[in-house]
Amino acid sequence: MDSSLQINDKDITIETDKPQHVKTKIFNDSIHGHIELHPILVKFIDTVEFQRLRNLKQLGVLCYVYPGACHSRFEHSIGTCHLAQQLVRHLQTVQPKCITKVEALCVEIAALCHDLGHGPFSHLFDQNVIPRLQPTGYEAWEHELGTIKLFDKIINNEEYGLKSEFEKYNYDIGEDELHLIKEMMFGPLKKGTYQKAKSYQARPEPEKYFLYEIVSNKTNGIDVDKWDYFARDCKHLNISNNFDHNRFIKFCRVVQDGEKGRNHICVRDKEVDNAYEMFHTRLRLHSNAYQHKVKLALETMICDALYLAADSLVLTKPCGDTFKMADSINDMDAYTQLDDGIVWQIIRHPKRNDVQHAKNCLDLIKQAVGDDLAPSVAGLQTFLDKMNGQANLEAAQELLLRVLKRDLYKVVLKKKLPKDVHLQEVAEASMAEEIANYDQSLSSNDVAVKIVKFNYGMKDKNPIDNLLFYSKNNENLSFKIPKDEVSFLLPERFQEQVLYVFLKTISKKEVVEKCVDLWKEKELKRRILNQENPIEYTPPGTPQRSGTSKISPPALKHEEEKARGSAQRRHREDDDEPPSKRQHVHLDN
Q1: Vertex 495, ends 486 and 415: CA angle to 5°?
Q2: Is the dihedral of CA 327, 329, 331, 332 positive or negative?
Q3: Whole-structure pTM over 0.85, yes or no?
Q4: Separation between Cα atoms, residue 27 and residue 47, nearest integer Å
Q5: pLDDT per residue over 417-427, tens digit each?
Q6: Separation between Cα atoms, residue 215 and residue 530, nearest integer Å
Q7: 286 catalytic, yes or no?
Q8: What is the pLDDT of residues 40-75, one digit of tens each?
């Protein structure tokens, strides 16, 4: 058997002649060791759209908190493809008729390409930046939508020749199979569109439902994507991982659900502890890393910087056309130009300190020449008005330089919310306004409010309730295992919320802290009470709706007096400043 060693970029690969005359490539991965990939998969890897993933860090800004967290979505995607391949081959071994050769390749392609649509700093871009910029179509935008659009871009690019590559290796990949791949990455999708469907279209048969549980499992969240990033992130963050995905794969098989008649990926009953360990690992990663308070501060700063720079930063497509950041989600040629390096584009953008000086000179000229000659300088005025956006760009530069210098937003309040209270992220901006309203010197730009959820991946539900098991005695009968039959030490609740308030302007530290104290005792408490026992203030003479309590003006006055009194105390452990030195804060009634 002939073999040759080929060194490309950062990857060392070995090409080996297989009996089927297919030259596979072997990647040496830091987590899974040697990974063998079919040449069709390598064709996908060797595209501009996929190579872009090298410049997208898997954990976004977390590398500024954990120095080792610099791994990319490029290696994660290859690792996910490998695990999908391992699971499919295992199923083909124990149940040869459950999945065809073509379907197996579709699963591997979907696993490889599932993260194509991520933007700069991953979830920060689609969950924070895009909704804030509000471009056309932003309501429907999510990185999975970008993924299937970029996947179509790769497939339809004749230069890449993917369609001829399918024919070369005797894979009958038609429109139905391409739609199957996209549904594996995105979820139910209407054929020929980018719109969500109510049910899966490419493989609607109940016996094929399990195919949609391998890459992106909507049933219980257990899929190869998570298995790879749990192992990879834990290694680079130096956090222990007690979940064994290799063992889990060995005990997987396809079994029919007795209730709905669908085929699901089930696991041996003795693996229930291993399944819970997977979600314990997820929770540990979120609490120790993904939702680290410094990481949240960094994300808020970078989001602010991208928002400030959005209108002034001019980006260029390969064809030479220019575009703005917000417009990129509607143009995949533009979108592929965005990666984590955008922060350095902003930092290195040349400053135009002469703009304000020129505007001042222009005002003097207009005053000197009078109204008759003023139109002659109107063109210059228009130009300078456009350049005024440079101020926002320079503000973004200053903010990013603060990140590099570790001059970060500071936490002034961290509060775990009561178990039955679930505040919505959409309320963050209004809560920042409420805090700022307690002092005339503040604006909502001086504070930021973040609501963070910690759960097992399915909000307040236990994902294991949706996992089916089989026993050694009957491999073709699926069943669920109630939590109480596993252990009485497992959690009773599966979600909690934590509220953070960040100080943006360090010079306003004292006044912000006092305003936050007042807000916490009044507005936040009222929000919590409204959820536990809906309460609203009803003016005299207004008909009262059923199911609500009425707060009278005297009661409101009592609340305000109580809030004023509590403002004299500090609630931060690291603050020992005597009350006599604090600035007086006015409470706006």
Answers
A1: 135
A2: positive
A3: no
A4: 17
A5: 998 888 887 78
A6: 40
A7: no
A8: 999 999 999 999 999 999 999 999 999 999 999 999
455, β-bridge pairs: 495
User: Residue 518: beta bridge partners?
Assistant: none
At 111-136, the pLDDT tens digits run: 999 999 999 999 999 999 999 998 88
> Hey, is 273 helix, strand or coil?
helix
Q: Is the pLDDT of residue 14 over 90?
A: no
Strands 469-470 and 263-268: parallel
What sign does the CA torsion over 407, 133, 192, 338 have?
negative
Q: What's the half-sphere exposure (Cβ side, CA atoms, 13 Å) at 554?
A: 0
Listed residue (345, 353, 356, 358) closest to 314, CA to CA: 345
DSSP string spanning 145-189? HHHHHHHHHHHT-TTT-HHHHHHHTT----HHHHHHHHHHHH-SB
Q: For residue 538, what are its two tokens?
A: 């009803």
Kindly report, residue by residue over 347-361, the tens digit of the pLDDT: 998 876 555 566 666
Burial of 258 (0-12, 13-18, 19+ CB in 10 A): exposed
CA end-to-end span of the chain: 84
Q: At what angle do helices 354-369 and 378-387 cross, to 10 degrees?
A: 160
- Marked catalytic residue, from 143, 236, 245, 264: 143
**Pairing verdict, β 322-323 and 315-316:** antiparallel
- Range picked from 20-24, 538-542, 560-564 for highest mean pLDDT: 20-24
Residue 143, both tokens: 């990185």
CB count in 10 Å sphere of residue 441: 13
